[in-house]
Amino acid sequence: MQDNNTFDAIVVGSGITGGWAAKELTEKGLKTLVLERGRQVEHVKDYTTTSMPTWDFRLRGRVSAEDEVNYPVQSKVYAFNEATRHYWVNDLEHPYTTPEDQPFSWIRGYHVGGRSIMWGRQCYRWSDLDFEANAKDGIAVDWPIRYQDIAPWYSYVEKFVGISGQSEGLAHLPDGEFLPPMELNCVEQKVKSGIEGKWPQRRLTIGRVANLTRAHNGRTPCQHRDLCFRGCPYGAYFSSQSATLPAAAATGNMTLRPDSVVESILYDEQSDRATGVRVIDANTGETTEYKARVIFLCASTLGSTWILLNSASDRFPNGLANSSGELGHNLMDHFYRVGASADFEGFDNKYYDGQRPNGVYVPRFRNVWDKHPDFIRGYGYQGGASRGNWKRGVGENGMGADFKDAITKPGPWNMGLQGFGETLPYHENSVRLNPDKLDKHGLPTLFISAKFRENEAKMKVDAMNAAAEMLEAAGGKNVSTYNREAPIGHGIHEMGTARMGKDPKTSVLNKWNQCHDVPNVFVTDGSCMTSASCVNPSITYMALTARAVDYAVKELNRQNL
Ligand SMILES: Cc1cc2nc3c(=O)[nH]c(=O)nc-3n(C[C@H](O)[C@H](O)[C@H](O)COP(=O)(O)OP(=O)(O)OC[C@H]3O[C@@H](n4cnc5c(N)ncnc54)[C@H](O)[C@@H]3O)c2cc1C
Ligand code: SF4
């Protein structure tokens, strides 16, 4: 570092991918500036509600009418409530626009740690079923990597993160470096037997989750409280705060600046390199420039794409590194809110210990071995079985000691399976800058134009029916199905808009997450994705980030950047 504003590397964003970039860059000896647009959230100290009992909340944890006004998008997320509100962006303060008939849910957390504090922690490897999908279907562009390119990096990040799970030996859902699995409860075991008995190729397994089932890398095992979305005082689930940022800080090479909104990347046409970033102080509005030899964009899918779009120059009039014209296009997500549930009898004398912060997973089975006539790609299910609690008494007619006595006893068993399905990379699903709608810093906001299309609609119907069929086959009673409308984005797995590819004419990033056009800029969050798979994506972002840093530092040492 030569002066206060010059570093070896700059990382934009401190969420799941920014934390990883910071850890890897600093551990390789680079003086690294981490710029985060939101406030500081200190591990443990700032988890202000982490152990508050429900009765200490004004609304007993519910979403208030006022919150529905200020957080019209965020408050629809299952994890948003009175206990977690402080982690979500105020939608009114951070606007974006969409076509009237195409709502998009942009779910965000602007603070140190990003959504690593509020994520659901489900971690599944991709396989070549995913990496080869575009090429086989003749859709969009081919991935420039295959499973063997990323497999060692999955292992690398999993060993650090700590993921509990059960090895299953499935080629299309590869096993990882697992800590001991959590247990299936009695009804989940019954449903597993029912499904696997009738369809030997299908599987039900315990969720693969970044919650520790034993002490790991100095972090404490999970206490099964199921309060993770408030932040964990034990550091028992993976977040930037509990894992990557402390590792980066321990090197002495990290400078973390919260409240620093990266407005654009500075580009020098002569050297054809980025030279740094321009930052607006979120509190004072003051502008500062920081310089570095390499820049990692980890500001989340739409955050990073916004920065690139907002970094236009004579050389790149449509956004930095956008000679392909693909920047902002091919936005994807996963559909969900579709599935079935059923009651299970015969287990009234059984219960479970604690509140397991995890469910079950049924890996994809469509278009794996046979071709489905109605759609391409597939879906997996997340779900679980539990007993009804006292809340089943709400809305029921009843009073007196007998009624109270009845609702304090465990209720009937119910098991649900909810589908998460792949969205195709449609060029038309896109984002662009909207100069007519500025944010509080006077910066253009995003116009997001995207929707699910025919393939997703057909897959949803199949996911609903297949869930019901499996629960019925397992002995479920009162099977009910649902297929609820939810805007694209609501799956919180937004991906694409700066895709990887082999050809600079049709993709923004190469196989190392490096901009084809500007070699010292790397983009390693979900914007890099070329297709969406149907599994939760964050472990793949982590593996790609660690892999990209390894490459970038080697390139720096070879004087190639
Ligand atoms: C309720 C919920 C459940 C989820 N469950 C799962 C799950 O089970 N499994 C899974 O794989 N994924 C899950 N996800 C998604 C997961 O959280 C994201 O995929 C992941 O956090 C993406 O990492 P990221 O680093 O790209 O973005 P983030 O973690 O969102 O971090 C981006 C950071 O960049 C900062 N930033 C943005 N713009 C700028 C700027 N201009 N300047 C400076 N800083 C900026 C933001 O403030 C933020 O801190 C879930 C998300 C939520 C909300
Ligand atoms: S359930 Fe486990 S990981 Fe989640 S907050 Fe509680 S102890 Fe932490």
Question: What's the short version?
Answer:
22% of the residues lie in helices and 18% in strands. It is an alpha/beta fold and 561 residues long.
Give the helix/strand layout:
Layout: E1 9-12, H1 16-27, E2 32-35, H2 65-70, H3 128-131, H4 133-137, H5 147-161, E3 163-164, E4 178-179, H6 186-198, E5 205-206, H7 240-250, E6 254-257, E7 260-268, E8 273-281, E9 287-291, E10 294-297, H8 301-309, E11 334-335, E12 338-344, E13 360-362, E14 379-387, H9 400-407, E15 413-422, E16 430-438, E17 444-449, H10 454-473, E18 477-483, E19 521-523, H11 538-557
The structure holds flavin-adenine dinucleotide and iron/sulfur cluster.
> Count of helices?
11
Low-confidence stretches: none
The total beta strand count reads 19
Tell me which ligands are bound. flavin-adenine dinucleotide, iron/sulfur cluster
Secondary structure class reads alpha/beta
Description:
- With 561 residues, this protein is α/β, with parallel strands linked by helices.
- It has a domain at 1-40 and 107-162 and 238-331 and 426-448 and 495-561: FAD/NAD(P)-binding domain, CATH 3.50.50.
- Helices cover 22% and strands 18% of the residues.
- It has 11 helices and 19 strands.
- The chain has helices at residues 16-27, 65-70, 128-131, 133-137, 147-161, 186-198, 240-250, 301-309, 400-407, 454-473, 538-557, and strands at 9-12, 32-35, 163-164, 178-179, 205-206, 254-257, 260-268, 273-281, 287-291, 294-297, 334-335, 338-344, 360-362, 379-387, 413-422, 430-438, 444-449, 477-483, 521-523.
- Strands 5, 11, 12, 13, 14, 15 and 18 form a 7-stranded antiparallel beta sheet that branches. It has a 5-stranded parallel beta sheet with strand order 6-2-1-10-19.
- A hairpin with a 4-residue loop joins strand 7 (260-268) and strand 8.
- Helix 1 packs parallel to helix 11 (538-557) and helix 5 packs across helix 11 (538-557).
- It is globular and about 80 Å long.
- The two termini are 17 Å apart.
- It binds flavin-adenine dinucleotide and iron/sulfur cluster.
- Flavin-adenine dinucleotide (FAD) binds at residues 12-18, 35-38, 77, 79, 107, 109-110, 114-116, 118-122, 261-262, 298-300, 303, 307, 492-493, 525-526, 536-538, 541.
- Its cofactor is FAD.
- Belongs to the GMC oxidoreductase family.
